[in-house]
Amino acid sequence: MLAQFGGEDYNDDLARLKSLLGNLGCAIPPLYKQYSEVCEPGGVQFIDFGSDPDFNNCVDGLVLVDLTYLKANRYQRYIGAHLGAQKSA
Q: Is the pTM of this model over 0.85?
């Protein structure tokens, strides 16, 4: 199945993933979509996925986010907004 995703075009791969999941009656989890769009290309890696039997077989994912790739608006929201607060404290 992984061979269907080239990794060169995010939008193509995302459309393909949506189609495949739709055929199974599923959708992309909201957090997957949010993590995949928080950075510029190359800033997010999905390292591994597993099923957690102690949590109703929920799918867990290990995500690596390189903060140097954060999109400017996300940087300001999640990091920049707190830098000013640290200086005042």
A: no
